[in-house]
Amino acid sequence: MRPNVITEAGISTRLNQWWGSIPFITSGVILICGAIYLVCLLTGYDSFAEICFLPSVVASRFQVYRFYTSVVFHGSLLHVLFNMLALVPLGTELERIMGSVRLLFLMFLLATTNAIFHLIIAFLAAYNPLYPLHFLVDECSIGFSGVIFSMIVIETSLSGVQTRSVFGLFNVPANWYAWILLVLFQFLASNVSLLGHLCGILSGYLWAVQLLASWTIILFFY
After folding, report:
1. How far apart are alpha carbons 84 and 78 in whole angstroms?
2. Rounded CA gap, 151 and 94, in Å?
3. CA–CA gap between residue 49 and residue 76 (Å, rounded)
4. CB burial of residue 185 (10 Å; 0-12, 13-18, 19+)
């Protein structure tokens, strides 16, 4: 019996140490998304039509709140678990580099710019004269993954890492990492928003360039 007690205590200690190593804003986002999913599960709420990012409704009714509600809601346990586990290393590293307040502000900006890119591209694709894709303006999107794709691009730019591991199976050039994940998720998972992830990557590049420029100026004057 004694070895089992030691093993259980060891697991509990390691979990506490792991959770304690996650900084304030990153752990806060995990708790918020987890709590929202738990409330939805307990109340049986599974119709996200009023909170998802729906381009046609956002544009026609100017429901800007969907920019942010769509980010913190998730459709399944695997959905929220996968997103939050992906957030832990990214958020921890960016919060270490940038600080908690700046990371919180960055997440807000990323959710905003992701949604704006999503709106623009969805309507351009839906009403282009050559091959209109009307379904894109009626696609209901939820989840934190768009922001995570943005954070992947930003963290890669700030860290200067040269390669990334894809699911621990093989390494790829860091600059290709987000794009490879974009393609893989379309093949490996169902009900994945290609446009939501794409806009996350584009938004990430936008802020990565600005952050790098700002840091260069600060270091130059310092």
Report:
1. 10
2. 8
3. 15
4. middle
Residue 82 in tokens:
């996968």
Strand partners, 163: 173
CA geometry: angle 23, 141, 196, nearest 5 deg: 70
Q: Could you tell me which of 118, 105, 108 has the C-alpha nearest to residue 58? A: 118
Q: How many residues does the chain have?
A: 222
| Residue at token pair 């999913």 | 37
d(CA 116, CA 79): 23
The neighbour count for residue 37, using CB atoms within 10 Å, is 21
What b/e sequence results for 120-136 when a residue is b if at least 16 CB atoms lie within 10 Å of its CB, and e otherwise?
ebbeebbeeeeeeeeeb
What amino acid positions are annotated as catalytic residues? 145, 197
- Band (pLDDT 50/70/90 cuts) for residue 209 is confident
**Architecture of the CATH domain 26-221:** Up-down Bundle (1.20)
Q: Where are the domains of the chain?
A: 26-221
Q: How far apart are CA 213 and CA 114, in angstroms?
A: 20
Give which of 66, 40, 38, 62 is closest to 54, Cα–Cα: 66
> How much is the average pLDDT of 151-158?
93
Amino acid identity, position 166: V
Angle 90-94-100 (CA atoms, 0-180°, nearest 5)? 120
Residue 6 has pLDDT above 70, yes or no: no
